[in-house]
Amino acid sequence: MSVLIPLVTVEGRDSVLLTKRSIHLRSHRGEVCFPGGRKEQGETTTETALRETFEEIGLDSKNVEIWSHLKSVIRRQADFIVTPIVGHITDESVLDRLIVNSDEVQSVFTIPIDELARNAGLTKFNSKKMKYTLPTFDSTEFKVHHNSSGEYLHSSQRVWGLSAVMLHQALTLLNPEVYKHDLIVKFF
Q: TM segments (predicted)?
């Protein structure tokens, strides 16, 4: 599997594009995530992320400049690995022309990176086998670019789970001084 972490400048602010999965899906319904999915035979992880992004939200690969591959992340159940691909959407106006597959995606929105850094949190988990801490991001400051008709969109959004782990990894690399400082000051 691979996902695209789409960066874009929206109204002059560096932002991250996220999707909210349709509530009609069998798994992970209503969760905030990055566009992406399963690799098809013969595809690279970059090709998978770009194809899935196009299938889910209609963002054409010609409008995405690939910046980097991040370290792959394994799901807690150890049943699959996800490779995050960081890309920059070269023209903000494409967000006004998205063709969203409503069977898979309820909403498409962007959150400014500085907002994510300010609202980074940590959640501690205890399982029978181990204890671990994962990042979370809560935001009330986001711009909706698409929302399926008749679907309720909360006034705040939470990024958690694998998406938060990948977002944490990206923010740490993109702006380590600001992001790490904000996280350390907030929690220690």
A: none
